[in-house]
Every structure is written in structure tokens, then in C-alpha cells.
Amino acid sequence: MPGIKPLKPIPEAQAGNRLTDDFLYWDRMKDLAVFQEPSTITSIAFSPVEPHHLASTSSMRLGIFDSVQGEALMILSRFKSMVYGATFRNDGKLMGVGTHEGYAHLYDIYKTGGTNRKAIRMFKAHPAAVRDVAFTKNSNHFSTVSDDGCVAYWDLASPKTTTPLWQIEKAHSDGIRSVEFANNNDNFMITGSYDHTVKVWDTRTSSESSNAIFTVDHGCPVEKIIISPNDRFLFTAGGLSVKIWDLSCGGRFVHALEQHHKTVTAMSLATRGTRIITGGIDRRVNVFSLDSGDYRLLYSKKVSSAVISLDVSPNDERIAIAMGNLLSIQYRSKTTSSRKLVSSDAPTSITLTKQLTAGSLNVKKKFGAPVIQRERGGVQKVVELTAPRLYKMRLGRLDMYLKKEAYRSMLDFIFATKNCLAKPETVVAAFEQIRLRQALPRVLANRSGASLVRIISFLKHHMFKNQFFNTLYEVADVLATVYAEETLEVHVIGHFRSLRRAIENELKLQRAIAKACGSLDLLIQASIAEHRNKREEKLNSIFGEVSIHPITFRMDDEEEAPTDVEEDNSEDNNQVKSKKIKDLPPIARDSRKIPKGNKRLPKL
Hey, how many other C-beta atoms are within 10 angstroms of the C-beta on 334? Predict the structure, then answer.
């Protein structure tokens, strides 16, 4: 449009100032190498000793990778079935895996190489698939768990491993997915199963009792369990949460980490047990604090695919993430790129009140320039036009943003101050224009916590008004869809839950109103029927009941043709009938039968 003065664009809102030490510490992780496995990766594990080799199981092969150079050291593929549960011993010299056929394989990774790729020990551990293997910290014992709910405890010092030292056939009612030993006491073993329970066992007790020391209920199928370095806390992953239990208090529930929107499949401790890293099929990797007391979320990153397994090296310099059949090895870079994040919480210099009044027609009327006119045969004369020019519309800031298709900037400008609730019709009109242009997902995505809180507060205040509902319902639906798989701050999640409660309360109110309307309708119909009956009774009491009795006229049947015998007595019969009629009273005479053909009516 001509005459529009360009305005300085407002910078789009970005995430708040997240340049904390923990954020920078974990944001320095960069890709070192990415390997493609033949099938879905079932487990990964770092060696506890330097140079911290990485073991990975996928399909029917076991891979050992150099985490420093990002290269494959050896590939062991002499398996006849799927391989699960790669685990290193505490000294890093021995590694164990389980197979789908129920065998347990033990490897010395320092002697296994070149042409010597055989297991130093292989034996039949369970009739079902061996899902996980765990070594004790200070002795030559290890345990295996299987899909049939069985757990076994073995001695590595025995020349022939054929019979377990301790075994429970039905330790769980479903398959066991994870097993761990205590760090300071090799006699305590913990198992996590798909039957939603985690059990603590003492291998010194008799296996015939099959009674665990205590049991905790996670509430969902347990995918992974780990123990804190001091053996006090137990972490269980399954469903949408990671739960923390206090083993020193008999398995008392402490806290639940609920920052994932889909099943949590992997977790690992880092930074000497002060951080816990979780991953799930929602493609999120989250880092939580364990030493601050509030278990807050320190860092979150979205990866390219669902996380199946992950592990962190003991020195925090390497992290391995299994995403389907992709294995990503990441390293910590030494330098960080300098960047400045703009916070959307800073107030703007233009208030919303001025913005809402900027589009008014507060311009002066401009009249046209003088026009020289000459009539035919006359002289020229100056004619001044009295009709003014059309108003020159001055666009407001919102209209300018709409013209430039800067919808995100327009929304940032609207919710820059808390005065947006003063004139909700303008805000709803802006949302409607964005909705018509099919830009709501793009505009509402990647917003800061403060911006989301203001938008959700506006929805809670005005979504249930009749004139605003259709537009704001679309906004709420898109907002919930965009951030369904995002990791948000705790207070933002609280506002989302508050919005959900407001919607539930509104639905309850609508149901109550519908029930009340139905009850009122029945009462009104009953009252109308009762009023009608009372009115009829009142009319009957005044005029009496009206009864109508019809007067019936009885006609003789058709006369039959007289025979020869009847003709002789016809005259006698006529005389008798006339005599009887004379003897009847007047009323009876009038109601006598009238012969057919005689149209005379009775005289009343």
C-alpha cells in the first residue's frame, strides 16, 4: 500500500537464557561416528577401564568399537540366534552376553582378536532367551536372567559351568529384562521384570524359598534398573517415568522423573553418580540432577530416532546412543561456540494499549488541488473541489505484521505485556487470521516458557466464551499437539495441566447444564399437561358435561312381494294395524316404523 512507513521488526522470541554450566557441559557433545547395524540394536555398554571400548549387540553379532577413534575393533558374528545384554566386568577384561537360544557367552576382549574370536566360556543357562548378564563387583560370580522369569547365579571359578550355585525358576511371573548387583555387597542382587515389579534377592538364602527380601511395584513393565554408587538409591525405568527408590528404607518411593511422553527404554548414571541420563522412544535424551534435591531437568536434546539404549563412559567424555539400527558415538568438544540467546521476557518499548489504538482513523482530511475548468465559448476559471479525497488508512502494527506475513512477530508483540487480556477481541481476531492462513503450528512452536504461560492463561480466561470458542479451541488443540512430545519446564507443565482441568471442569459444567435442561423440560411438560387438565375440569364445572345422544330412525326392511295366500289376508291385517296405532300414545305414534317409500318425518 502506498504511504506506509516501514517499521523496525521485532526479533522473534527464542528460548530463555539457558547458558548454565550444566547446559554448556552437555551441549558440547558432538558426533564422533555413526555406525549402521544390520538390525535393531539390543544393548550397548562402555568398558569401565580406559580406553573405554564400546560393546554393541545387534541381530546375531557382537561389535567392539574404539570410542576414542570412532572405529570398529572387531565384529563377532558366530552366533546362531539374537544376542542381548552386553555387559563388562568391573576390571574391563571380561564381557558377557546372552542369546535367544538360552546360552551365555563370556569373552576376553584383550585376547579375542584376529582369528581367535571364540568365547572362553559358553554354556546353556536357561531354556528361554537370556536377556541380561551381570557381574559381581568383587568376586568371580555372575548372574543371568531370561524371558521365562528365571534368575540364576553362577561361579566363574568352576572349570565346567553346568549347574548354577543359586537359581529360582519363577522369580517373576513375566520376562526379566534387567539385573544388577550391589556395588558394596556382592550377595545382593536386584532384578526388574515385565510383571511391573523389581525384587531384591540375597544369594546367601536358600533358593527353595523363592522369597525376595522386598519387592517394589513400578506400575509399568520395567525396561532398565541401575543402582547408585553408594547402594542407597534404586532407579527403575519403564512406562513414561523413571522412579527413584530408597533401598535403605526398605524400598521407599522417593521421586518420579516424568519428562518423557513415551516409554523410557534406557538410562545411565554420569558425573560420578550425580547425574542421570534417560532416553525413550519419544526421541528425547534428558539429563537430571541427583545432588540438588529437586531432581530438576538440566539438559534435553532431541535425536533423530527412538532411543533403544544408551550409556555414558565413566569419564563423561563419551556417550553412545542406540537409535534403531544406528549407533551414534559422541565426544565432548573442548571449545564452545559463542552465542547469545535472546530472552523473550524483556519488556518492549511499545505498550499494547498504543498498539490497539494505532489503527484508528486519526488522520486529517486532505482536499484535492485546484482544477482549471473552461466552459464552451467561455474563459478559464479555477474551480476548487469541495469533495475530499478518500481517507488514507493508517495501518496498525498488527496489520503491518499480517501484511508482511510475520505472524510469529505479531504474536510475540501481542503477548509482550500482560495487558493483552484487556481487549481479548483483538487477540482472538489475530489468532483467527493466523488460523485462516494455516500458520498456527509454525507460530506456536519453539516458544519460551514465559510466552507459553501467557498464551495458556489467555486460553483459560477466554476459551469458553461463545464468540471466542471456535477460534481458541483450534489454538488449544494445535498447542497441545505441538508440545505433546516436547520437554518443558515444570511450571509450564503445571499450566498445561491447569488448562486441562479447566477443560474438564467446563465439560462437567456442560453435562450438568444438559441434565438440568432435561429435568426442566420434563417439569415444564408436566406442568403444561396439569394446567390443561385443570382448565378442562374448570370448564366442565361451569357448563356441565356435554353428552350427545343420537336419535335413531328405524326403517322397515324391504317389503317382500305378496303371494296369492297373503293377498286374501292383507285387508284384515291393515285393519288390525290401524286399530293398534290409534290405541298408542302420541309419542309412540311418532316413533312408529315408517313404511319404505313414505318420506314423512315425525312431528315432534
Answer: 6
pLDDT mean across residues, the chain: 78
Tally the C-alpha atoms within 13 A of residue 493's C-alpha that lie toward its C-beta. 12
Angle at 33 between CA 32 and CA 36, to 5 degrees: 160
Which CA distances in Å does 251 have to 186, 216, 225, 255, 529? 19, 6, 14, 12, 68
pLDDT at 339 over 80: no
DSSP-assigned letter for residue 235: E
Percent of the chain with pLDDT over 70: 74
Nearest Cα neighbor of 130 from 92, 82, 168, 93 is 82
Q: Which of 335, 319, 313, 244 is nearest to 285 (CA)?
A: 319
Asked whether 475 and 433 are in contact (CB, 8 A), the reply is no
Query: Is the confidence at residue 74, as pLDDT, over 60?
Result: yes
Q: Which of 73-87, 118-132, 157-171, 209-223 has the lowest mean pLDDT?
A: 157-171
Contacts of 3 (CB under 8 A, 6+ apart): 392
Which residue's C-alpha cell is 526379566? 176
Q: What is the DSSP letter of 283?
A: S
Contact 219, 263 (CB under 8 A): no
pLDDT at 99 over 70: yes
Length of the chain as a residue count: 604
Instruction: Determine the straight-line distance between the first and last CA of the chain, rounded to whole angstroms.
Output: 100
Q: Which residue has the cell 408436566?
A: 526
Q: How confident is the model at residue 17 (pLDDT cuts 50, 70, 90)?
A: very low
Burial of 131 (0-12, 13-18, 19+ CB in 10 A): buried
Long-range Cβ pairs for the range 208-217 (8 Å, 24+): 210/168, 210/169, 210/170, 210/171, 212/171, 213/188, 214/250, 214/251, 215/251, 216/245, 216/251, 216/253
Task: Work out the angle between the directed axes of helices 407-414 and 397-404 (0-180°, nearest 10).
Answer: 160
**What pLDDT does 310 receive?**
93
Q: Which residues make beta-bridge pairs with 309?
A: 322
Query: Could you give the CA distance from residue 595 to residue 425 in angstroms, rounded to a whole number?
Result: 91
Burial of 581 (0-12, 13-18, 19+ CB in 10 A): exposed
How far from chain centre, in Å, is Cα 15? 23
Residues 6+ apart with CB under 8 A from 174: 149, 193, 194, 195, 221
Residue from 41, 74, 46 nearest 58 by CA: 41
Over 60: is that where the pLDDT of 303 sits?
yes
Say if residues 110 and 68 touch (Cβ distance below 8 Å). no
Q: Which of 173, 200, 182, 195 is nearest to 134 (CA)?
A: 182
Which residues share a beta bridge with 275? 270, 289
Whether the predicted pLDDT of 373 surpasses 80: no
Grid cell digits, residue 573: 291385517
